[in-house]
Automatic annotation (TrEMBL):
PANTHER family noted in UniProt: L,D-TRANSPEPTIDASE, L,D-TRANSPEPTIDASE YCIB-RELATED
Protein name per Swiss-Prot or TrEMBL: L,D-TPase catalytic domain-containing protein
Source organism of the structure: Bellilinea caldifistulae
GO CC field: extracellular region
Pathway: Cell wall biogenesis; peptidoglycan biosynthesis
Upper lineage: Bacteria, Bacillati, Chloroflexota, Anaerolineae, Anaerolineales
Length: 129
């Protein structure tokens, strides 16, 4: 299956996540079937979201996040897929559809909860422009 110009190899019944940076959208698939979609905010031009194919390596119901100029306690429904990059709920803004993050993929908290229940450690995350 081709997604964002990249070949995505998944089993017919395998859940996976597609992140379209150009459209600021996340799509949840099972095999080739689209099961849900969400408007998101990804990294800015100064702190871009990585592109490529990754797998979720850890999930946290709540976790603290910190970096240069920010400290965010109890970030909900966090799923890391590459180094400090993750998909997570966002309580500090409601400006979805506009790049706002330090590289992570910000979702509305209720959307992040759905995605958290949908995905497992090992779920493919495909990120493209």
């Amino acid at each position: 299956m081709i997604s964002g110009g990249m070949e995505v190899e998944v089993a017919e019944d395998e859940p996976w996540i597609d992140v379209d940076l150009s459209d600021q959208m996340v799509y949840a698939y099972v095999g080739r079937e689209l099961v849900n979609s969400f408007l998101v905010s990804t990294g800015t031009w100064r702190t871009p979201t990585v592109t490529g194919q990754y797998r979720i390596y850890v999930k946290y119901r709540y976790t603290d996040m910190a970096g240069p100029g920010y400290y965010l306690p109890d970030v909900p429904y966090t799923m890391y897929f590459y180094k400090g990059y993750g998909l997570h709920g966002t309580y500090w803004h409601n400006n979805f559809g506009t790049p706002m993050s330090h590289g992570c993929i910000n979702l509305r908290t209720e959307d992040a909860a759905w995605l958290f229940d949908f995905a497992s450690v090992g779920t493919l995350v495909n990120i493209h422009d």
